[in-house]
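> forwarded from #structure-qc
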């Protein structure tokens, strides 16, 4: 486990460096309001949403055209906890979130069906599972999700938090023969600076839950903090003003 339960200064610094050097890596492949809007069949949505409607005019290369003809086959989900599945710093699942998880696990057409692909969903948090201080959170989450068999990732000793634990997450799925390639994974979370950047480091696809746990106007929805406001502004600026789009995962040729 990492030594400090709270600090992720290196992650913040890495996000800033990425924004300065490779700003497109800051952009998600798909943006949805909340986790409840996640499509069951993700692949077509990841491709169709990667080109912003208001982007500047660019020349589409032959390679890009080939990539657009392919559809990702997503066999695994990495889910953030805080402000994606639960309100921040809690283990309380809103009923609609639990309903969505149950649908993904029980639908006969879902790639994440419990019977057909039982180890296809993993919660990866920078809180629960990242330090022994949060072991009670892990126990609470897994107890509530025991009927759906959704585990919490335990950060291996000596491994840093998101976005730096991507290789270990990929290894977790490989060892269980869920995937053959990282581009069969979609990372779903509310933070561009951790969840989206980690997906790029993994060679996976990213889904940004822009509104967090609560829909716009929903009771209990907190105001965005400063970092969250900055991420929303930066994403819009890069997409609309700079004409950038999320790059396909490495190896997606």
């Amino acid at each position: 486990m990492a030594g400090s339960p709270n600090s992720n200064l290196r992650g913040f610094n890495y996000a800033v460096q990425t924004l300065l050097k490779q700003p497109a890596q800051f952009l998600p492949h798909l943006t949805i309001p909340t986790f409840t809007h996640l499509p069951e069949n993700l692949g077509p949505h990841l491709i169709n949403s990667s080109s912003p409607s208001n982007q500047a005019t660019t020349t589409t290369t032959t390679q890009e055209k080939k990539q657009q003809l392919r559809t990702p086959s997503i066999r695994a989900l990495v889910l953030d906890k805080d402000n994606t599945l639960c309100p921040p710093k809690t283990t309380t699942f809103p009923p609609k979130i639990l309903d969505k998880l149950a649908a993904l696990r029980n639908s006969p057409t879902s790639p994440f069906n419990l019977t057909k692909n039982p180890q296809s969903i993993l919660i990866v948090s920078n809180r629960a599972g990242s330090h022994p201080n949060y072991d009670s959170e892990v126990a609470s989450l897994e107890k509530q999700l025991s009927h759906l068999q959704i585990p919490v990732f335990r950060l291996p000793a000596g491994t840093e938090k998101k976005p730096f634990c991507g290789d270990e997450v990929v290894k977790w799925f490989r060892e269980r023969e869920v995937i053959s390639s990282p581009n069969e994974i979609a990372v779903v979370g509310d933070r561009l600076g951790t969840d989206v950047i980690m997906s790029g480091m993994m060679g996976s696809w990213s889904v940004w839950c822009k509104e967090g746990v609560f829909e716009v106007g929903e009771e209990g929805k907190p105001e965005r903090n400063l970092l969250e406001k900055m991420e929303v502004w930066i994403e819009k600026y890069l997409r609309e003003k700079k004409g950038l789009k999320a790059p396909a995962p490495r190896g997606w040729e």
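QC bot note: The chain has one domain: 20-37+73-218+228-241. The radius of gyration is 17 Å.
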